[in-house]
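Q: Structure for this?
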Amino acid sequence: MKKIKINSSLCVGCGRCEVFCTANHSASRDIYKAYTLEGLRGTNRIHLLEGNDGYAVQCRQCKHTPCVFACISGSMHVDPSSGAVINDTKKCVGCWSCIAACPNGCVFPYHEKDGTKYALKCDLCLSADGEPACVKACPNGALTLVEV
Amino acid sequence: MEIKAGLMDFEALNKMVRADAEDGKKLVLREVNGQRYIGCGLCGSAEIDVYGTPGNDMAAFLNGPSITVYGNGQDQLGNTMNAGTVVVHGSVGDTAGYSMRGGEIFVKGSAGSRVGIHMKAYKEHHPVLVIGGSVGDFCGEYMAGGTLIVLGQGGKPSPITRYCASGIHGGKLVLRGEVSPSQIAREADVLPMDEETLSEIEPLIERWCGYFGGDKRELLSGKFTLIKPKGKNPFARLYTNNVY
Amino acid sequence: MSISFQMPRYEVLRREDRCVKCRVCERQCANLVHRYDADLDKMIADEMQCVNCQRCVVMCPTRAIAIRRYPLEYRENANWTERAIVEIQRQAEGGGVLLSGMGSPDDKPVYWDHMMLNASQVTNPSIDPLREPMETSVMLGCKPDSVTLGADGSVKTKLPPQVRLSMPVMFSAMSFGSISLNAQKSMAIAAKKLGITFNTGEGGLHRDLEEYKDAAVVQVASGRFGVHTDYLSAGCMIEIKIGQGAKPGIGGHLPGRKVNADVSVTRMIPEGTDAISPAPHHDIYSIEDLRQLIFSLKEATEYKKPVCVKIAAVHNVAAIASGIVRAGADVIAIDGFRGGTGAAPTRFRDNVGIPVELALAAVDSRLRKEGIRQRVSLICCGSIRNSADIVKAVAIGADACYIASSALIAMGCHMCGTCFTGKCNWGIATQDERLTRRLNPEIASERLVNLLSAWNHEIMEMLGGMGLNSIEALRGNRLMLRGIGLNQKELDVLGIAHAGE
């Protein structure tokens, strides 16, 4: 089972992880289109802490899955094939219980323009296939994909 | 343990010194005839007595042992010394104590020019250089730390000559005798002796007298001048950043 | 109040059809060029601060940024160039000595580019390094005048201490203080992996690098910072720095504000104090004094390490080198005027010293003529940019080359030349923790290993092409070089014939 690990002494605080995360979860997979045409600014599942020179926050794939237990709709679940914790945004009702339950502050509320709301969290880019975009985009090796 | 140096080559002599020097034990070198680099880079706590005239660079890079010279020393004595004690029952040549970082050198007689250049102190390392007689030009140049004392005995009109403490940015010089500000570089502050420095140098003068004889009270009652740096950046040049 | 005549040197071109206002450029620029303006809802640039380090260009997720020369188009004048004018303006405003970073950018001849290598054809077959073994390793040190063999073929002559390099390249001296610990560590890791050496410079050997000490050349410069018996015995070779190609004849000065806690420990001076390296070493006023320092270092290390003397290439360098050989040095490093630096007065960097190609040729020829060439190994430095420069240097007479700027470029340096500001955006020429973390030694050392492994293969290919299978057979082999576009005097000094001859 894999998770993304951050080595804060190597994080240079650039924010490339946020941009590539956003683009990799877009329909076009193109950064410019994702931000402009698709309006996906703010949908990144990894966040650079403000005013900090080096720390990016993303889901740590906790073994005890507090977010899954808190979920009232069953949208937050453990994906059987990969073992990763994923939120099915179509089922999610936006109650934010998972956000309250998460000990690491890495689940984020998102509101679409038409009012639809759901919780966003890292899905190890399983929906996109391939290596997690943030790991690939990190210029300094601060983000790595590790086996747990 | 005794080694007769005689006309032995310095390389051979120093090899024997390195082999025979034992921590806490005394090693005596007799008939030393200008062999260089004696005690160079030696560590530990051996005691070495040198009879005769050691050559240049004696006690260079010394790191612990004590060396007593019953005779005159030559040039570059105690070059870049780190720890240890050197006592010379005579005079020394030029550039004694160059870049000393620690340890002590006590000289009965006089020294040449460029004495104590770039002495520097670091944490518990505090280099000390005490000359009984007088010194030549450029004494204490670029001094960055440590204590340099010139006692001015031996009948010369002044303990120093010219360009004393040029570029000094740390440490202090204590000069006993007639000193005029024209002999001191403008980067240095020429000050009267103060209580704090007097109490600092008192044990050092006492040790000097212990090695070579002399009246500690008479030495301490002499006319002293204290030389200290004016600032930490003596040769500050104004730079203009260029883009080419 | 008056006005500054200074205009920006560069402008930031931002493609509106690519910029997504992600602010990565804003976060990464230590010179505060980029800024997101909320009122205008766009990224704007204060190009006055831009030094063209290219950090934002590389980091931008959509490659939306390009840096271009600011179109400051003074009236054409071959004599009063823009540079000549701007330098006067800066001094009129600042009143100080002009200070520059990195090596001289002047348009003076690069002799490496005027020498061509031979290739074997017909009469002497070339060698394919993929098929046959090729020796690129080098032993640095004094070689005996003659060798006596025993009856069983073993060498009876006692050999002076040698340093083995797996290839004829070493990392040159860049002190901790002028560059970051991460940069030094990257070179130390790479040197150990490759089987070559790195150089501490005059900043001492940081305790974090102690596991790489066997690959270290420890430098003894005029300030003697960090020089004590442990330091001397740590490295594989000791280097006495007499001069440096970028600023021959003058000393160095690390301002107190750059002496932080770490630098203070390694240099063994109190934090915040200036580190002054006087010129000259005040215990070396003659060649006899140099001999004394060399032997005091040999005595202090029990003759177990070779001693190198590094000099700048100046007039009469051949005579100086001859004196240094007789003073007992085992290795001589000759640093040409193109050599890099973190900070040097502009006028010294551009106007003092001579090209290393000519100096190397002069020194090698003189030592051979005097019959003492075997007593030292020669190291060539002062802008070695690629493997061809190395091969040509060896052909002229060098045993090995030092590289510095090349290594920094491999690690991320983009030659913006503002090292002295301490705001190196690539984490190299700075001690600011927010910037030094950008240089990951694991990644940077891998880049260095890649670069030098590639160069090693290229050297082997070029050797093979010349029909040689060992770097030894190339050393001083001037017949392998031909000059192009050189006058007779230049050919004479280099000791090579013209192409076509």
